[in-house]
Amino acid sequence: MCGACGWLSGCSNCAGKLVLHLKDRRLRCHHCGHQERVPHACPSCGNADLQPVGIGTQRVEGALQEHFPKARILRVDRDSTRNKGTWQAMRQQIQDDAVDILVGTQMLAKGHDFPNLTLVGVLNPDGALYSSDFRASEKLFAQLVQVAGRAGRADKPGEVLIQTAFPDHPLFRALREHDYDTWAKTLLAERQSAGFPPFMYQVMLRAEAKNETHMYTFLQQARDAAIELAMPVDIYGVVPAAMPRRANHFLAQLLVQSEARKPLQQFLREWRPLLDVLPAQKLRWSLDVDPMDF
Ligand SMILES: [Zn+2]
Ligand SMILES: [Zn+2]
User: Domain 201-289 class?
Assistant: First the structure.
């Protein structure tokens, strides 16, 4: 990021931002694979003082090294686990107690059993509390419970420290008290009042194309056809996807929902053949029933 003009290293093919890889001083897009050298100065205003944003695992590793100069630190990330042999060797290092501090992304929370792991720190998971994906806080809770399960064993009690700007959020309160029931009830009440699953049944029509106009025309025609069927379902507007541009393609979507599954299935039976005959040149589309990602 450029502090002078606000420039951010965006990907030229996607709506996403490039991620800084310190080891080889490159910026990489984690969506399409595009990469480039870190610029010496801001491409927009020429300011030479560019700053990294966010907490990458490499920066966390650097900070830990400063605070604990004698600790043996192992960083596990996408790069280090891409190669199966490397990951195998790292696991062996951990099993052999050759590692004091393990730094990694959320992938470390999954399915690995490290018996001597007794303290876990979770750095700033707040994004999930206010995500556009209504399931994000449910996923975060599940993940943190999983992380807590990773720390400690019967003979070696574990501890989990979570960094957050919202310590009084119901999610953290429920987590602290190991109170899954209250958290589940809170979420269910929220979903019911907002009209989200499991109180609603949904289908998402997604389209992607290099040409933005083709994509929107297709989705708009699909929406018109849906409305003309005049069936008892709610038809939303055409909106850009959460990641509206990826690898040089534009992505958008159209949500249809109903309070019961049957009317939605009847609607789909009528709608599907209409979609099949819509002009869809150089365009990919799909119907996602019970979509998990928004
Ligand atoms: Zn990209
Ligand atoms: Zn600038």
Answer: alpha beta
